[in-house]
Amino acid sequence: MAETVTPFGTAPSLLDSLDPLLRAWLPRQRWFAGKGRPVTGFTPVAVTELLPPDGRLGLYHLLLRVHQPITPGPGDCYQLLIGVREALPPRLAPALIGHLDQGPLAGRTVYEALYDPRPAEVLLEALRTQARIGGLRFERDARQEIRTGLVARPLTAEQSNSSVVYGDTFILKLLRRVVPGVNPDLEIPLALAREGSPRVPAPTAWARAEIDREPYVLAVLQPFVRGAADGWELALRELAKGEDFAAEARELGRATAEVHTALARALPTVTLGHAQLEALAGGMTERLAAAVQAVPALRPYAGGLRQAYRDLDRLAVGGRTWTAQRIHGDLHLGQCLRSASGQWSLIDFEGEPVRPLAERRLPQSPVRDIAGMLRSFDYAAHSVAPPAPQWASGCRAAYCSGYAQVAGRDPRADPVLLRAYETDKAVYEVVYEARHRPDWLPVPLSAIRRLAA
Ligand SMILES: Nc1ncnc2c1ncn2[C@@H]1O[C@H](COP(=O)(O)OP(=O)(O)O)[C@@H](O)[C@H]1O
Ligand SMILES: O=P(O)(O)O[C@H]1O[C@H](CO)[C@@H](O[C@H]2O[C@H](CO)[C@@H](O)[C@H](O)[C@H]2O)[C@H](O)[C@H]1O
What is the phi/psi pair of residue 130, to 5°? Predict the structure, then answer.
């Protein structure tokens, strides 16, 4: 493996010639968070040569700050794996970024290398050997082996990050928008692994970088759950057949409670008292006000929805407290995998990526995750025609009772908190759908009507 070229060696000219190509390519990527605003430039944070460009394939790892108008601060930092070839084989055509027309590599083709097995295997080899390349640190759980010869296969599903599967044995998630600090996508699964929880694939290896003395998590390798289907696919499949999903929902409730119980043991818990609950209700009220501005269809329901937050506030004033702990933070059916043997596991502990990292790592009530799952059953039931509200009610009840069997506490015993979190999530979903999938807007809006009544 070649040496790093930080601070840049051949890289400045490479970056100069990449600049116009990336400006056009980056905003088209699903994981690019700054959509809707032009990219006006880049600042390299670290450029690391993984394979020299003199062979058939050159490979660069890039951390780039992206400048956009109206972005406060220094601009988001993105992680890219750039391949350089004389010509791109037809199978890699979708990965094309463009052709370099200047600099030392003029005439070569650059492309998104994560979708090419050979470069993806370079990353796995670095993790296997715990390599240090430039500022990149590849680390591995000493108890877990990575065998050689695993063939890489990219996952092409549209996601917030990018993933590669190796020989159906491991899956590597390469984080795209990277932020300094402890990343819950590594922190939480590691904590659960220490607790011996079988509900979350234990991280095998990970990549980090230290930039300006701040730590960044760049990628996480986990065992691949073979033959798995996610909860959303399964729920829709059962709905299409007119089949009940309550038994699976109960199992999911049990799995969620097991994860919560292990997290409460592994990481600090705090008490949510008057001030914290007031702040929670206040935050929900503010998000509702912003959502009404963004999606006027919410306006007629705002008064009714606000009542859920007032009720929470009233409990806070009355001295009610709850325990808060680390939770999943963005739980829905799509974050649950059922293995071929029927075992459920939870994935993607990143939290809501739009929120600041510090906020995502705060202890919160586990009821928030439960509300996310309850919304998801409702989503499934209202995304089919005709809607199946009874199906959703059955799943919701089964999920709560499965949760209670393990946690010793039924989430339905906290109706005010549950309703407040569900309302907050439905409001978020209205904004999310208006922005990303307008055809889906009726799904959360139907819940808004019920919650506001
Ligand atoms: N351990 C795993 N085993 C099998 N498939 C997985 C595993 N982890 C993730 N996946 C698959 O990869 C997809 C993306 O993973 P996820 O962590 O949700 O990434 P993102 O942050 O990009 O949404 C999931 O929807 C799932 O299909
Ligand atoms: O990309 P993420 O998984 O972090 O989550 C975002 O996208 C989700 C949709 O893919 C969205 O979830 C909503 O739709 C799901 C069905 O597609 C449904 O199961 C969820 O309950 C519903 O919230 C999620 O809100 C958004 O953050």
Answer: 50, 50
